[in-house]
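We now fix the convention by which a protein and its fold are recorded. Here is one such record, which you should read through line by line:

>
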Amino acid sequence: MTMVAIKGLTKRFGHLLAVDNISLEVSKGEVLGFLGPNGSGKSTTMKMVTGYLTPTSGTAEVCGIDVLEDPIQAQRHIGYLPEGAPAYGDMTPQAYLGFIADVRRLSGAARRAAVTRAVELTHLDRVLYQPVDTLSKGYKRRVGLAQALIHDPDVLILDEPTDGLDPNQKFEVRTLIREMSGEKAIVISTHILEEVEAVCSRAVIISEGRVVADGTPDDLEHRSRYYNAISLSLPPANIDSVREGLHSLAAVASVEQRDTAGVQAELVVVPEDGGDILGEVSRLVRESGWEVDQIRVERGHLDEVFRTITTGEALPAGGDGHA
C-alpha cells in the first residue's frame, strides 16, 4: 500500500533550483533512507511533503490525501521531526508533549495515554520536569521524536533522528524505528550511512535536487568497487611477496594496502566486476604457504558509492572505505 506519493516536486528560491522534479513512492512497511550531500534538497523535500513549504510545481500525497489541497487532513497522518527539533525552551517535556497532544486534538484518557506512550518509547521519564533549554542535545532530540510519535501517525518523516545521540541512544532509536516499521511508512533523512545499513529497507540518494540512485542497501553495496573484495591480515614482512602473488590472479583488478594502526598489515584484493574471488584467493594462500591471520569478504562500501554517485569521485586507493 502506497503511503507517500511524491509527484514531480520542484522548488525554486529565486534563481536557485533546490528540488528538481522529484517523484517517488513509499509503501507501508518501508523505511526509506533519504540521502544526499548538504544542500542537495533533502530537508526542502521533506518540508514540502509535510505541507510546511509550498512547492513551485508538483505535489505530494500522504495516505491518498493531496498535501496542497487538504494540508490539515494530510498532516493528521504525519509525524514530523524537523531538523534541529525545535521546541519551546521554557516548557518542560511534560508540558510540551501535553501542548502537542492538545494541538493534535487529543483529550481525556486518550491524551494521557498518548503522552505516556510517547514518553515511554523515547525514554524521557528522567527529564520530564526539566525545562527543555536545560536538556542535552540528545534529550532535546528525543523530545522532538516524542512529539512526532504522540498521535501514532501512519507516516513518520524524520530529519536526522539520531543527531546528537550517544551510541546507546542511537541503538534505542534505531530499535524503535525497526519495531514501528511494519505498520508505518518511515522516511529518514540522514548523512550517517551506518544508519542506512542498520534500519533502512531502501535508500534514495539525491544530488543537486535530483534523484540519482534508488534501491535497497544491498543494491547500493553491489555498486561499490569493493563489493566481494577480499581483505587479508598478515605480518608486514610478508606483504610485498603476497601482493605480487595476488596480482597474478586473472580475476583480480587491483591489490591495495589499507592503512592500519596495529602490528598487522592489511591487503584488499579488488575483483574484476565484483566477481566472487574468495575461492581463488584462499587456494593461492594455501598453495603459497603464506602466513595470513584472517581472510574476510567485503560487503561493499556505501560511503564510496555515495561519493561516486554524488561527486563522480571514488575513494582513494587503499582508503578504508567504511562509513
Notes: Residues 315-323 have pLDDT under 50 and may be disordered.
